[in-house]
Design a protein that fits this description.
This protein is mainly β. It is 0% helix and 44% strand.
């Protein structure tokens, strides 16, 4: 298990931007591929974006392509999610996750508590 702490969520108007951050106190996140996921009430968990350990490879969910950007800073031990042109459908709890033993970001002990993002229309 690792501790992951998300920050940066909040309330934003449609069309606006937010940047989420994920840090790993006491653990080098550079050891892991990292991802952002989200879950809205009554919906399944959805992949938002993933990034390789080096940061050289990224992947995005279809609904966020061209609007969101995942990045990482090894010196700051932080993974970011820049979210632009937000709309009401982006409203959800956003989770940071490390690629643990399962290899598919599904390990409960490798996920943060989440940060709420609410987009007003």
């Amino acid at each position: 298990q690792i501790e992951l702490v998300e920050s940066g969520g909040g309330l934003v108007q449609g069309g606006g931007s937010l940047r989420l951050s994920c840090t790993g106190p006491g653990r080098q996140l550079s050891r892991y591929a990292m991802g952002w996921f989200r879950q809205a009430p009554g919906k399944e968990r959805e992949l938002v974006a993933t990034i390789s350990r080096s940061g050289g490879s990224t992947r995005y969910g279809d609904s966020v392509k061209g609007r969101f950007t995942i990045s990482r800073d090894h010196n700051k031990n932080t993974v970011y999610l820049q979210m632009n042109r937000l709309n009401a459908e982006d409203t959800a709890v956003y989770y940071c996750a490390a690629d643990g033993p399962s290899g598919d970001f599904s390990d409960p002990g490798y996920r943060g508590q989440g940060t709420q993002v609410t987009v007003s229309s």
